[in-house]
Design goal:
By secondary structure, the protein is of the alpha+beta class. It has 3 helices and 5 strands, in the order βαβααβββ.
Length: about 90
């Protein structure tokens, strides 16, 4: 199964796990499987319309899925999906 790297901000919703394995044949299915297992992650990942939140960056093996096929990007059992919430800073 693909592995999903969990960022610190979401770990409170995944039992403090840094990584979880979930089934799916594309990035969208993997993220939806993560939400099915850990429902409190949904609002952090997806908008009310079911689209990936604009402040969430998702990478497949170090490649931004937005430059690939987005949520339709295919995954294999050996792939790693990394979730990186965008950080705001400054004053």
């Amino acid at each position: 199964m693909p592995s999903v790297k969990i960022p610190p901000v979401l770990r409170k919703h995944t039992g403090d796990q840094t990584s979880v394995d979930v089934a799916g044949s594309n990035v969208g299915e993997v993220l939806n499987a993560l939400v099915a297992e850990y429902p409190e992650t949904k609002d952090q990942l997806f908008s009310g319309e079911g689209e990936l939140n604009r402040f969430v960056n998702v990478y497949l093996n170090d490649e931004d899925v937005r430059v690939l096929d987005g949520l339709e990007t295919g995954v294999s059992d050996t792939d790693t999906v990394m979730i990186l919430p965008a950080m705001a800073g400054g004053e």
